[in-house]
């Protein structure tokens, strides 16, 4: 297990939260911390908290079935590990878009545990930060300039005021219509505002020495997980299309940067070795999180078959002779003045 300190910047004024210590919610309109609201939007309808249980995992209740990842404690820990990996990859930064020091209004789509939004709020105290997600799993104790809402980013956006920076991370498998999402982000930005979306692109585990060909079970799992996500209508393997789709939505100064995230501590570079160590644990957790719903609901596999494939896939990833990695896409663009 990673220590809380190793997971990121919890020591920057947001160190009192406890997992599951969430406030009450209700359906909300966009709320700004400068409007006199508390640090957490409250009074959510009880149906949003009526979580569903399947395959030993807990799933969201709001818009049930639109998202196939669980939201339980194990998955929340995995999300926070993913945030730690990104900070290592970015040298401690929270993104690559050339935003101003304190963009007035910031939106984090699919905020998950809220860790990115809280870190951004800590590091940009003059910014108002809003995080949205299907699940009310974010902590009650947050920076004073950070709020959370239960919302679906694929529905119509009803924010009363535009944003200056919109951030999205690891939304593969969550987006059914990327061009429409990017158009909504464009419309929700102030002129000159930035949109940034980052995600690992699966499809196949890669290597530079041919060892990816030896990971037969892992590659079989990857092929099927991508097939299932595609059949579900929310593809995993689409990050390579985002830059052009941003341009088509009207964004300018669009940039794309691709970095490698190793699956295991095989790199010689100390930073990449640390990233690979955490990514290996995160990836095995992801297999446990993502596989059951897609393989059972979409692909029709039996539970015993699923368990066997997950175990074989994890064995491949833990094999030190296999030097596997995945590409991570960083894509950003600006709404013209």
Automatic annotation (TrEMBL):
One of its GO terms (molecular function) is methyltransferase activity. CDD domains: AdoMet_MTases. Pfam families: Methyltransf_23. It comes from the Eukaryota. Belongs to the methyltransferase superfamily. LaeA methyltransferase family. This is Uncharacterized protein. It comes from Sarocladium strictum.
